[in-house]
Amino acid sequence: MNPIDLFLVQLNTYLGEFIHMGSSGSSQLAVSLGWF
Length: 36
Known about the structure:
Layout lengths: L2 H19 L4 H8 L3
């Protein structure tokens, strides 16, 4: 699997978790992604 595919899979997983958790999990999600 090339890096772009791997990134897309991870992004999909994070988006799925975000939707599942709802807005209350958004800050945790951002931390997981390393945005902050």
